């Protein structure tokens, strides 16, 4: 497993991983309508290139397969953080997170923060994050519960 920075040619695999993870993993904690609103069928790969290129986006690659990815913004916000369904529980998320935290320390950040799904909350708790508050967010006409979480470095 190799952790590296995002490259433009990763966009299609990353977009598909995002879509598939939400539809096949997060559906355990959210309704079918919620996951369809969160990960609609019309994935736009070019948008992923732009977004991922403007952040520290780390990709876990396993012999050409993207096993997961996570994005760190310059202010310490962790945005997208997803693991491929076939790699969950194999330490991929931990490796990506450790790379993100090391970059945050290098940047002199004192705090990381994330809006974690119900599904991702236990992972971030294991990484040392605390829940600041439970919140409701809307997307595509659906309301979701997620958790504002933070970790001081």
What does this molecule look like?
The protein is an alpha+beta fold. It has five helices and seven strands; from the N terminus they run E-H-H-H-E-E-E-H-E-H-E-E. It has helices at 11-24, 32-38, 45-53, 92-106, 121-126; strands spanning 2-5, 56-62, 65-72, 77-83, 111-117, 130-139, 142-152. It has a seven-stranded mixed beta sheet. Strand 2 and strand 3 (65-72) form a beta hairpin. Helix 1 crosses helix 3 (45-53). The chain is globular. The mean pLDDT is 94.
Roughly how many Å is the radius of gyration?
15 Å
**Low confidence ranges:** none
Largest sheet: 7 strands, mixed
Task: Report the strand count.
Answer: 7
Which class best fits the helix and strand makeup?
alpha+beta
Helix content: 25-40%
Question: Globular, elongated, flat, extended or rod-shaped: what is the shape?
Answer: globular
Query: In what range is the share of β-strand residues?
Result: 35-45%
Concise account of the structure shown:
With 153 residues, this protein is an alpha+beta fold. The protein is built from 5 helices and 7 strands, in the order βαααβββαβαββ. Helices cover 33% and strands 35% of the residues.
Descriptive terms for the model:
153 residues, alpha+beta, 7-stranded mixed beta sheet, 7 strands, 33% helix, 35% strand, globular
Break the fold down into its secondary structure elements and pairings.
Blueprint: E1 2-5, H1 11-24, H2 32-38, H3 45-53, E2 56-62, E3 65-72, E4 77-83, H4 92-106, E5 111-117, H5 121-126, E6 130-139, E7 142-152
Parallel strand pairs: 4-5
Antiparallel strand pairs: 1-2, 2-3, 3-4, 5-7, 6-7
């Amino acid at each position: 497993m190799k952790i590296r920075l995002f490259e433009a040619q990763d966009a299609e695999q990353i977009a598909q991983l995002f879509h598939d993870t939400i539809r096949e993993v997060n559906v355990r904690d959210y309704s079918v309508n919620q996951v369809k609103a969160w990960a609609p069928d019309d994935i736009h790969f070019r948008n992923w290139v732009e977004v991922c290129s403007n952040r520290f986006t780390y990709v876990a690659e396993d012999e050409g397969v993207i096993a997961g990815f996570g994005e760190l913004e310059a202010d310490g916000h962790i945005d997208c953080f997803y693991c491929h369904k076939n790699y969950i529980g194999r330490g991929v998320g931990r490796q990506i997170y450790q790379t993100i935290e090391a970059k945050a320390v290098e940047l002199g950040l004192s705090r990381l923060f994330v809006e974690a799904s119900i599904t991702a909350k236990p992972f971030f708790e294991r990484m040392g994050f605390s829940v600041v508050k439970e919140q409701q967010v809307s997307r595509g006409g659906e309301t979701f519960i997620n958790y504002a979480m933070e970790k001081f470095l």
